[in-house]
Amino acid sequence: MAAPQTRQLSSLDKVEMSIHVNDTEKNQVQEPADNEFDYSQRGQWLRAAVLGANDGLVSIASLMMGVGSVKEDVKAMIVAGFAGLVAGACSMAIGEFVSVYTQRDVEVAQMKREKQKRESENVHGNEEVGDQKEQLPNPGLAAAASALAFSVGAVLPLLAAAFIRDHKVRMAVVVAVATIALMVFGAVGSLLGGTPVVKSSARVLVGGWMAMAITFGLTKLIGSGGMQI
């Protein structure tokens, strides 16, 4: 009887050792390396910066292309572009402020519920709550960053068109500057986010071209009398 019991205990030991090894390997796979950077931590400010600059560039370049399709006057393009810059920056700032503030309210409400639950269970967690409050998003900072990023992108086509008198050359320069800037913004965003550079840049570039082309075509259609309003 001793021999079968010994073999049975040995088999159980092997099973336990196998389970322990599998759990260890699983933990090693799940735990990221110390030198591996978590790109998701950059999500908030990356979105406000890169996407804000893209929005500013595409919006103002498209607006100037639309105005340029019916007006050859450089002043008309610059004034329309500047008005779009101010309106767009304000819109981005207000939208970002409301969005982040709403997110902050939701997180604060969740923290209060967790605090009440801990108090009802006689569990102390004041230090943890304090750390969580320090990590809450800042609506004012997010709004300022979004408006600044939009303005940086929007000012590029304005500067490109401001000193060119010939209408056709001015339009071509706006498209060229917007193309280069879109490629740069797409590449920067992909590098910071750890995504493929070519794919990200191509996606941003094609989207910008489509916006400029649609705005140019529809504005020219309406402004040239092809559509009666």
SSE order, one letter for each helix or strand = HHHHHHH
- Shape field: elongated
Question: Could you describe the largest sheet, including whether it forms a barrel?
Answer: none
Radius of gyration: 28 Å
Look at the structure and give the mean pLDDT: 79
Helix count equals 7
Please report which band the strand proportion falls in: under 5%, 5-15%, 15-25%, 25-35%, 35-45% or over 45%: under 5%
Low-confidence stretches: 1-9, 14-35
Secondary structural class: mainly alpha
Q: First CA to last CA: what distance?
A: 101 Å
Q: Helical content, roughly?
A: over 70%
Number of strands: 0
What do these coordinates show?
This protein is mostly helical. It has a domain of 155 residues. The protein is elongated. It is built from 7 helices and no strands.
